[in-house]
Design goal:
2 copies of one chain form a homodimer. The first copy, chain A, is built from 14 helices and 14 strands. The first copy, chain A, has helices spanning 23-29, 39-56, 70-81, 95-106, 124-133, 155-164, 184-187, 213-220, 233-240, 256-272, 274-294, 321-332, 359-375, 385-394, and strands spanning 12-13, 62-66, 87-92, 110-115, 139-143, 145-146, 151-152, 168-172, 191-193, 207-211, 310-314, 334-335, 337-338, 347-351. Chain A folds into 2 domains: 23-270, Aspartate Aminotransferase, domain 2, CATH 3.40.640; 273-394, Aspartate Aminotransferase, domain 1.
Chain lengths: 395, 395
Amino acid sequence: MTVSSFHPPQRILMGPGPSDVHPRVLQALGRPIIGHLDPEFVMMMDEMKGLLHYAFQTTNQLTLPVSAPGSAGMEACFVNLIEPGDSVIVCVNGVFGMRMVENVERSGATPITVEDDWGKPIDLNKLEDALKANPGVKAVAFVHAETSTGVQSDAAAIAKLARDHDALSIMDCVTSLVGTPVLIDEWGIDAAYSGTQKCLSCVPGISPITFSERAVERIRGRNSKVQSWFLDMNLIMGYWGAGGGGARSYHHTAPINSLYALHESLVMLKEEGIENSWKRHKLMHNALKAGLEALGLSLMVEEKYRLPQLNTVTVPEGVDEAEVRRRMLADYGIEIGAGLGALAGKVWRIGLMGQSSNASHVTLSLAALEGILKDLNAPIANGDACGAAQKVLLG
Amino acid sequence: MTVSSFHPPQRILMGPGPSDVHPRVLQALGRPIIGHLDPEFVMMMDEMKGLLHYAFQTTNQLTLPVSAPGSAGMEACFVNLIEPGDSVIVCVNGVFGMRMVENVERSGATPITVEDDWGKPIDLNKLEDALKANPGVKAVAFVHAETSTGVQSDAAAIAKLARDHDALSIMDCVTSLVGTPVLIDEWGIDAAYSGTQKCLSCVPGISPITFSERAVERIRGRNSKVQSWFLDMNLIMGYWGAGGGGARSYHHTAPINSLYALHESLVMLKEEGIENSWKRHKLMHNALKAGLEALGLSLMVEEKYRLPQLNTVTVPEGVDEAEVRRRMLADYGIEIGAGLGALAGKVWRIGLMGQSSNASHVTLSLAALEGILKDLNAPIANGDACGAAQKVLLG
């Protein structure tokens, strides 16, 4: 067996996540380790809580980074808020809605699905009908920004419907957080989880999460123990000091260096300003869109539901989509994403998340895509992709 | 709110983990990110599997790093191997045995505990009696190296007893792996999990795990779904290619940079040689022990059950144990651990794990401890701690 250090190639990450990580964040990641109960680390944890409040636009006391990827953040919401025998409405319009159904079932509860086509937002009328038809459902779970399709749903309206029917709202904002407005308090969301490797542009492995007071009451008033010891918020609160009081009790060893990195990426967010981050993602999306349209390529999602940070591009007839991705990576070091689930083979997913959302990356990605499609004799329009993008970028 | 980059202080980590991380590992951690399905990353994953085989001394096909800390590795073993209604014998002689009981209960199974005093190893006779009294138990779970007490139990004998009674063995080797022999195949262990932040001297947040063929059959033959989607090995195998075949299917986004770091720490292990690592930990333990004895301090655990990498030192009568730890940290930047659970206030836990297990750290820790205890007028012997340690180090 060959044994030598691993030196990753230089990539430009324009897929559905992970996104590029800024050198400042990589530097923070590589700083010397200290103990997870070190007084200096505890101070950093407190600061991070404030920064997460800013990212989520909330004042929720129970806001913290779960020590595992977004999928574990999803699971943390379900296993803490749902008890065996509960009914939960799950809105499904892509891969991550389906994953929520799995989570509900595995929590011993009954999922009631409200289904919409992949590429369409959640239909509020269908949801309202389901709520009326199923009195007593404990929660409405939905994906704000479906990473599998690039669709954004109306989170504020969904949360209001849930509240009107006395159900908690559980929101996946893995791909939306920081890239497009996520307003936990204004929308009245009860539980939300995200990931670090999307618009926060941090390394993967951590899931920021937030629970409203109403959600915390639900957790505290459970009849059964949370089925996951590792994700039991009653225990985790004791380490993060989110249960009030200053003492920190050991639960598990926190991923110290990854938290240094998350802290730094949140500091950078604060420096930029969250509104500016939203604007930047929108501008880069418009530039990319202009370039794609110049090539005659179309976005799968209807304009008003499009996520700026995740663009689902329909693969032109007769084009080998995997070959295009392979060439983008081999010739330019650019990673773009494949379709997931029902969309496999039919779309590319071009991410414009966090640090990846900048004028140089957009321009280079368009030039590379244009060149490769032409080289493969793909049926595209003869427009000037980079020029079209530049026009948008220059305003 | 003040918002600025976090610069951790320089520490020497001589507690129960995390341990010091070598600059090579920190450098690997901070390398630029690539995609979790990037062909180069997949190659690195394959290499890592081989390196984990070496660390665990196994050829188990299902050997991989779980994307979360050791507590999640523990949970992965229980939720995959245990089904609701099963009975599981859990040997309890410290905090982590108690945590196993929690895991069994939360998996809907019935724990049958075999209890020994904290600071004592697992009593094989009691275990055998329990196995005889409870035919049909599905597994025997035990902690090889109790991090809360510094005791090592006879894993080979426990695994044999389990096998003789047709039960799987589930072993916690969080603190033992690489610091003292862990021989998965030779001992016939069916499932084992570890952590990265102990003797592997990597950053915390990942849990290496391994399952025997017998365990994999149990997972494949389950009647019920694994209650955790995130930890479901049936799904995770698809990403790690552990189910055979070359294809990699997306499950969750792997903690890419932390895996770079783990790869590097495993490369360093291979360079040193695992036998040399065991020897080094033993030598440093003997040096520390000689120094402590010169001060009249005693180790809580009987000599033949002592873990070299985790030393539980009895706090002398009348000494404020927290103040000693505070001074070690404030005056020397040295972190040592407090007692956990039943041992809180009664012991210090001095770790000699991985990179922290070296002559300089042992010598400085002894000098610092001696100086602080004398300054606090503690009732200690007037020996020369550093000199005694040096004698051992020089052979």
